C-alpha cells in the first residue's frame, strides 16, 4: 500500500477528522465524503461552531459558573426524604456539640469559635459546593486547557480562524460539565455523610452534623443514637478546632491540590474516542459522551507524589481527630464500638465517592488513618498531649511515610532534621559574615 493510499484509509478512522468533517457538513459543505475535508478550504460560519457546542451545553439544562451548575445538580440528586431540622433535632445537635466542647477542653488546647449547626442533606450538599469547586478548580482548569490545546494542535487549517471562539465555548462548557459532575457526586453523597468534615477537608466554615444520616447510621450499625451523635460531634469539633488553630493547614492542602493539578495530563486517546462518537443527529448521546469522557485525568510521576502527600495529610487530620475524640469521649460506654465502626466506615467507598475520586483523579480516603492514630497515640503517651498537637505546628513536622511506617522513630527523625536545618542556617550565616 502506498503512503497516499495509507493516508486516505487512515483519514476515515481519525475521530478528530471525523468531528471536523461533521462540523463542515453542518456548515453546508458539499462534495466531501464523511470524515474527509474538502480540498481548497470551504468557507465556514464561525458562529455555527459556537451554535453546535451551545446546543450540547443547552441539552445539559444548565448554565453559569461551575459552582452554580454544581448547586443546581446537587439539589436534584439529594436522596429523599430529606427531613427538615426540627426544633427538637436542633436542640439535640446543640447539646451534643456543647458536651463535645466541654470534653475536648480537657484533652487539647485547640479550639474553634464558629457556631455549630444541624444540616439537612440539601444544606450539606449545596453548602459544600463552593469549597469543593475551589479545591478542584485548578484540576478542572488544567484539564480544560490541556483539552483545548490538544484540540488546537490537531485542528485543520480551514478551521483555525474560528479556534478562538471555539476555545471560549469549550472552556465554558467544560466548567459546566465539571460543575455538573461535582454536583451529582455531592448530591448523592449527602445521603450518607455524618458531618461537615467527613472527608477531612476544610469545606464548611462551621462544624455541622447531618442528623437524618446519623439516625440512619446508628440503626445500621446497631449503636446508641445519642452516644453516636456525641462522638461524631467530638470528631467534627476536633477537626474544626485543628483547622482554626493551625491556619496554614488549609492553605497547605490547597497548595497540594494545585501541585497535583499542575501535573495532571489528559488521556488523548480518550479524547479521540469521545470525539469520534459525537453524532450531530443525536446530541443527547453526545452530551453523555462529554459528561462521561471529558474529565478522566492521567497522573504523572510528580502527580503521584502530590497524591501521596495529600493522602498523608488527610490521614494525619483524620488520625489526630480520631485520637483526640476517643480520649474526650471516655464517659461514653460505646466509645470503643463507635470508634471501630467509624474507622471501618471511613475506609469503605461508595459508588459516588468513586465517581468523585475519578473526576478529580484523587482518592481522598484516609488510607493510613490507623497508622496516623498510632503515631499520635504514641506521641501522647510518651511525651504528652503537647507533643501530639505539635505535629501541626509547621508543615515540616507533618508525618512522612517513614513516620507512619515507624511511629516510634518520629521524634528522632524530626529532631535530626531540625538539627540539620539549624546547621545549614549557621553555615550560611558564617558565609555571609565572611563575605561582608
TrEMBL record:
Q: Name one GO molecular function term.
A: hydrolase activity
Q: Which SUPFAM superfamilies match?
A: Metalloproteases ('zincins'), catalytic domain (SSF55486)
A Pfam cross-reference name: Zincin_2
> What keyword terms does UniProt attach to this protein?
Hydrolase
InterPro entries cross-referenced by the UniProt entry: Zinicin_2, Zinicin_2_N
Region of interest: Disordered: 397-424
Put simply, this protein is called: Putative hydrolase
Amino acid at each position: 500500500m502506498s503512503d497516499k493510499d495509507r493516508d486516505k484509509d487512515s483519514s476515515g478512522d481519525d475521530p478528530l477528522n471525523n468531528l471536523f468533517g461533521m462540523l463542515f457538513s453542518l456548515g453546508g459543505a458539499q462534495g466531501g465524503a464523511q470524515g474527509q475535508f474538502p480540498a481548497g478550504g470551504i468557507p465556514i460560519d464561525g458562529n455555527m461552531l459556537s451554535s453546535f457546542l451551545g446546543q450540547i451545553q443547552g441539552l445539559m439544562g444548565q448554565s453559569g459558573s461551575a459552582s452554580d451548575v454544581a448547586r443546581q445538580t446537587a439539589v436534584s440528586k439529594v436522596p429523599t426524604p430529606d427531613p427538615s431540622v426540627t426544633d427538637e433535632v436542633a436542640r439535640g445537635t446543640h447539646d451534643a456539640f456543647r458536651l463535645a466542647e466541654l470534653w475536648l477542653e480537657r484533652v487539647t488546647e485547640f479550639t474553634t469559635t464558629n457556631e455549630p449547626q444541624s444540616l439537612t442533606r440539601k444544606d450539606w450538599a449545596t453548602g459544600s459546593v463552593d469549597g469543593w469547586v475551589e479545591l478542584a478548580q485548578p484540576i478542572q482548569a488544567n484539564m480544560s486547557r490541556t483539552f483545548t490545546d490538544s484540540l488546537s494542535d490537531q485542528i485543520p487549517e480551514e478551521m483555525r480562524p474560528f479556534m478562538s471562539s471555539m476555545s471560549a465555548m469549550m472552556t465554558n462548557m467544560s466548567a459546566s460539565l465539571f460543575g455538573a459532575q461535582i454536583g451529582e457526586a455531592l448530591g448523592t453523597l449527602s445521603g450518607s455523610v455524618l458531618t461537615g468534615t467527613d472527608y477531612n477537608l476544610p469545606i464548611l466554615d462551621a462544624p455541622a452534623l447531618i442528623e437524618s444520616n446519623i439516625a440512619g447510621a446508628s440503626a445500621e450499625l446497631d449503636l446508641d443514637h445519642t452516644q453516636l451523635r456525641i462522638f461524631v460531634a467530638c470528631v467534627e469539633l476536633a477537626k474544626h478546632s485543628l483547622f482554626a488553630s493551625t491556619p496554614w493547614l488549609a492553605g497547605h492542602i490547597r497548595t497540594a491540590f494545585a501541585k497535583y493539578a499542575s501535573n495532571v495530563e489528559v488521556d488523548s486517546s480518550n479524547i479521540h474516542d469521545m470525539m469520534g462518537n459525537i453524532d450531530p443527529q443525536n446530541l443527547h448521546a453526545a452530551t453523555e459522551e462529554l459528561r462521561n469522557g471529558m474529565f478522566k485525568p492521567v497522573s504523572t510521576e510528580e502527580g503521584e507524589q502530590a497524591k501521596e502527600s495529600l493522602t498523608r495529610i488527610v490521614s494525619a487530620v483524620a488520625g489526630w481527630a480520631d485520637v483526640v475524640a476517643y480520649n474526650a469521649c471516655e464517659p461514653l460506654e460505646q466509645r470503643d464500638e463507635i470508634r471501630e465502626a467509624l474507622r471501618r466506615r471511613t475506609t469503605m467507598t461508595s459508588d459516588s465517592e468513586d465517581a468523585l475520586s475519578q473526576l478529580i483523579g484523587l482518592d481522598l480516603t484516609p488510607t493510613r488513618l490507623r497508622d496516623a492514630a498510632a503515631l499520635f497515640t504514641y506521641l501522647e503517651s510518651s511525651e504528652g498531649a503537647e507533643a501530639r498537637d505539635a505535629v501541626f505546628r509547621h508543615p515540616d513536622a507533618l508525618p512522612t511515610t517513614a513516620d507512619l511506617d515507624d511511629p516510634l522513630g518520629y521524634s528522632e527523625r524530626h529532631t535530626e532534621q531540625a538539627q540539620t536545618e539549624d546547621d545549614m542556617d549557621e553555615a550560611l550565616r558564617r558565609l555571609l559574615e565572611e563575605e561582608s
